[in-house]
From TrEMBL:
Organism of derivation: Mycolicibacterium duvalii
Keywords in alphabetical order: Pyridoxal phosphate
Cleavable signal peptide: none
Name assigned to this protein: Pyridoxal phosphate homeostasis protein
Functional summary from the UniProt entry: Pyridoxal 5'-phosphate (PLP)-binding protein, which is involved in PLP homeostasis.
N6-(pyridoxal phosphate)lysine: residues carrying this PTM: K41
Comp. bias intervals (Polar residues): 242-275
GO molecular function per UniProt: pyridoxal phosphate binding
């Protein structure tokens, strides 16, 4: 990696951290209760390594094939003891087994069939020593009712409750909370206010603290205002992504192998899941 690229990442990270701190202060919240998830889709393992040196420990990917290669490459370069990998893209059920072998967290779970597939895959990984803790899963809700973009309609509360209950009862999974993306062209403040209402409704049914995965490069302030505990930031950290998916490791300016997942403490899909 060039010195120039590492300096670019350092400056961008400082700017994002300042935005996050400002948003937390404006909302009367502690900044350390909000996770900064660096979305590294389409960017090389070297960028992950550089961001890790700068203090990032959570990284998001949205394509299983790219992610599994990158996780293995990063593990070979610096190990994986204090890195948590998040799957933020839509997950095909036939990819559940692979995802369960490299991801600590899945953000876009929106069907009972996918819950069952991930539960089976995570339980199998646990049985074979490929992970040591259940897979954290977020229930994705759709804020405009367009489920073709992912998520259960936010007004379909019975279905959301059914999905959350299935996650809570699955032995291979840990129900982490809710995730959503504002509709295209929507006012982020209004969208996240509606998400916060739904999060509070669901939270009332569970004793554990449920997280809220919301906010990206362009709207993280509004998300933090309305209770986000995880912002998914790609572009503001790493710059514009290449127009096409790389075959191997991308050339831009810019599996964790089968080593067991879960040795760390707990504390963007081709479509809308970008940062």
């Amino acid at each position: 990696m060039s010195v120039e690229r590492e300096q670019q990442l350092a400056v961008a990270l400082a700017e994002v951290r300042a935005r996050l701190a400002g948003a937390a202060a404006a909302a009367g919240r502690a900044v350390d209760e909000i996770e900064l998830l660096a979305v590294t889709k389409f960017f090389p393992a070297d960028d992950v390594v550089a961001l890790h040196r700068l203090g990032c420990h959570a990284f998001g990917e949205s394509r299983d094939q790219e992610a599994s290669r990158k996780v293995a490459e990063v593990a070979a370069l610096i190990g994986s003891a204090d890195i948590r990998w998040h799957m933020v893209g839509r997950i095909q059920r036939n990819k559940a087994r692979s995802v369960a072998q490299w991801a600590h967290v899945a953000h876009s779970v929106d069907s009972l069939k996918l819950v069952h597939a991930l539960d089976r895959a995570a339980a199998e990984a646990l049985d074979h020593g490929l992970r040591t803790v259940p897979l954290d899963v977020f229930a994705q809700v759709s804020l405009d009712g367009d489920e073709s973009r992912g998520g259960v309609d936010v007004d379909a509360t019975a279905r959301i409750d059914e999905l959350c209950a299935a996650m809570e009862q699955a032995p291979g999974l840990r129900f982490a909370g809710l995730m959503a993306i504002p509709p295209i062209g929507a006012d982020p403040d209004s969208a996240f206010a509606r998400l916060q209402q739904e999060h509070q409704r669901v939270q009332s049914k569970y004793p554990q603290r449920l997280e809220l995965s919301a906010g990206m490069s362009g709207d993280l302030e509004a998300a933090v205002k309305h209770g986000s505990t995880c912002v998914r930031v790609g572009t503001a950290l790493l710059g514009s992504r290449p127009l096409t998916s790389p075959a191997v490791t991308p050339v831009t300016r810019s599996p964790q192998t089968t080593e067991s997942l879960g040795s760390t403490d707990k504390t963007e899909s081709s479509s809308p899941h970008k940062g």
